[in-house]
Amino acid sequence: MREVEVLKILSGVRRVELRRWVEHGWVLPERRHGELWFREIDIARLRLVREIRRDMAIAEDGVPTVLSLMDQVYGLRKELRRLAEAVDAQPGQVKKAIADHMSAR
Asked: What residues does 31 pair with on adjacent strands?
């Protein structure tokens, strides 16, 4: 999606803000023919940045910390899903042993 289209769907975000967020590396759109092109994941990230800045009133210098923490949370969720899938693929006795170990803590 081109920059102009993104600005239409991100209410309240000005072009100068969007470009500053890109310059800071908070979102990484592709560059095609001198234009910024945003994927769905970029738009989701832009919505998150907008929420951090506006709704949470986080100062600009705090945004990288919040984004880093959010990225870590998402990464950990992904790893937990993979671990759950690996456990689920085990024989019943192994799954039970894991469940027993987890509940003992």
From this structure: 36
What's the rounded mean pLDDT across residues 48-58? 94
> Residue 92's domain spans which residues?
64-105
Model pLDDT, residue 105: 75
Contact 69, 76 (CB under 8 A): no
Residue 40 sits in the same domain as residue 76? no
pTM of the model: 0.79
Judge if 102 and 70 occupy the same domain: yes
Tell me the C-alpha distance between 63 and 7, whole Å. Answer: 20
Rounded percentage of the chain residues whose pLDDT exceeds 70: 100
Q: Do both 52 and 68 map to the same domain?
A: no
Give the list of residues 6+ apart from residue 10 with CB closer than 8 angstroms, or none. 18, 43, 46, 47, 50
Indicate if 19 and 52 belong to the same structural domain. yes
What secondary structure letter does DSSP report for 2?
Answer: B
